[in-house]
Design a protein that fits this description.
The structure holds two protein chains of two kinds. Chain A is an all-alpha fold. Chain A has one domain. Chain A has eight helices and no strands. The longest helix of chain A is centred in the C-terminal third of the chain and has 29 residues. Chain A is globular. Chain A starts with a helix and ends in a 5-residue tail after the last helix. In chain B, the strands form two sheets. Chain B has a six-stranded antiparallel barrel. In chain B, strands 6-7-8-12-10-9 form a six-stranded antiparallel barrel. Chain B is globular. Chain B has three helices and 13 strands, in the order αααβββββββββββββ. Classes of the chains: A mainly alpha, B alpha+beta.
């Protein structure tokens, strides 16, 4: 139950933050980072469900007629179903995952991203930003899930 | 005596390979998501937009307050000059409004004499852009007014052109409302393929249909133009007023060269029946911050 509120709160807050960042021209997939990390550190099933709901809500808020975020966000949580629950320690894999998330989220609009002036450059910048930000987000979520006794701590797998 | 050996159950033959199951799950999920999305789209969209509205509006208030504070840092002389210029512009606009009111009264009287149906006119709703997405920056945006303010799907959205080709600052067409909730609306700009409207060319007087061509080229296509007319680059495109929700004579843009990669000239024959031409918007759609929505009275 606590995990449910944890996901609800972060989904709402990050959706607002990501929408506002998009409105000033910054495409930073905060929800993507959160759900990719929370799926491994907390619960893949719950992360998948919330990613789906948040993605669709994001599409509605931005007025899209197709559920692009609703399809792409849950995709980021699928690898977690095949991974063991681990506590994150910033490493090369986290940097790589962080760099991959922005292009995955931009996939439905990749044509626009590559054809508009500075589109490719901004996508590249976003990848670099993601590579730096994702390990921090992952470590924070992992740490908080242990402290709040959800996910890792709940299953007894935490405490690296 | 029962045997201590456990009975060996025959292993069930698994006819469906595992890989097919793994591939089927995302497909089924995607199908479910799409079905749910399109079934409950309108209701859920309205709920989501209204739920998040106060947060976005609060952020907008902070931004506007910061902009006001930044404005206060400008030199007083510069601000005084700007105020003076605005007062002059205001006086000119007030005079124009007065003239238009007289014309409206005349129009009303003549319509009564000719027993024509009464023209209801339009209300103007002033709104600000609260949300945009970088991937569709020039194609659509969300504004801060919705059903509560009388805005409906299909209403025209205008913006201001302070440096037009004609000289006098005026309102030009930015797009059309495609989705509304109680407190917000989604606007598809004239380069968005979802935005279609009937237009008239100013010099030739020909009527056509305008369809957005996407933000990568920042153009729109005017199709179904009569073949007999001649069309030149730079010709002004205006709203035709054929639709009930569309007033006549609002500047939309100007005819232009074909965008790169379009593989077409500025004006081409569409299968020998009609001509079509490319149009560039009258105003930069990237920098729109405030709009006026024309709603039916």
């Amino acid at each position: 139950m606590f995990a449910f509120f944890y996901f609800t709160l972060w989904s709402i807050l990050l959706l607002i933050a990501e929408s506002l960042l998009r409105s000033v021209g910054l495409s930073v997939p905060l929800l993507g980072f959160f759900f990719a990390a929370a799926a491994i550190a907390v619960s893949p099933g719950m992360a998948f469900g919330f990613a789906l709901a948040s993605g669709i809500a994001m599409d509605f808020v931005l007025g899209y007629t197709m559920p692009w975020d609703g399809l792409m966000l849950p995709l980021l949580t699928i690898p977690a179903f095949f991974l063991k629950k681990v506590q994150f320690v910033p490493g090369v894999l986290e940097f790589l995952a962080g760099a991959i998330i922005p292009p995955v989220m931009a996939l439905p609009h990749i044509r626009t991203s590559l054809t508009t002036p500075d589109g490719f450059a901004s996508l590249l910048m976003c990848c670099l930003f993601g590579a730096v930000l994702f390990p921090i987000v992952a470590a924070l979520i992992s740490h908080s899930s242990v402290r709040l006794k959800i996910g890792l701590a709940g299953t007894g797998a935490g405490g690296a | 005596m029962a045997s201590s050996k456990p009975a060996i159950r025959p292993k069930k033959k698994n006819n469906v390979p595992r890989i097919v199951l793994f591939a089927a799950i995302p497909v089924v999920l995607a199908a479910l998501v799409l079905t749910g999305f399109f079934t409950f789209r309108r209701t859920l969209a309205r709920f989501s937009m209204d739920f998040y509205y106060p947060f976005f509006q609060a952020a907008k208030h902070v931004e506007l307050s910061a902009a006001r504070q930044a404005l206060a840092l400008q030199p007083r002389q510069k601000l005084a000059l700007a105020v003076e210029q605005l007062q002059r512009q205001n006086a000119m606009l007030a005079a124009q409004v007065q003239r238009l009111r007289e014309m409206e009264a005349d129009n009303e009287r003549l319509r009564q004499e000719l027993r024509m149906p009464r023209w209801s006119g339009y209300n103007e709703v002033y709104a600000e852009v609260i949300l945009r997405d970088p991937s569709t920056w020039s194609e659509q945006f969300v504004i801060s007014k919705g059903l509560n303010d009388g805005i409906e799907t299909g209403d025209l959205v205008l913006t201001f052109d302070f440096a037009p080709r004609g000289g006098t600052p005026s309102c030009v067409l930015a797009g059309r409302v495609v989705e509304t909730s109680a407190r917000t609306s989604v606007v598809a700009t004239i380069v968005n393929p979802a935005c279609r409207l009937s237009v008239t060319l100013a010099e030739s007087g020909a009527n056509g249909t305008l369809t957005g061509n996407g933000s990568s080229s920042m153009t729109a296509l005017v199709s179904r133009l009569p073949l007999k007319n001649k069309y030149g680059i730079g010709e002004m495109v205006l709203t035709s007023g054929f639709s009930e929700r569309t007033p006549r004579g609002i500047c939309v843009g100007y005819l232009t060269d074909a965008p790169v990669g379009a593989n077409r000239a500025a004006v081409v024959h569409d299968g020998g029946l009609y001509a079509e031409a490319w149009m560039t918007p009258a105003v930069s759609l990237d920098a729109i911050r405030f709009v006026v929505v024309l709603t039916g009275k």
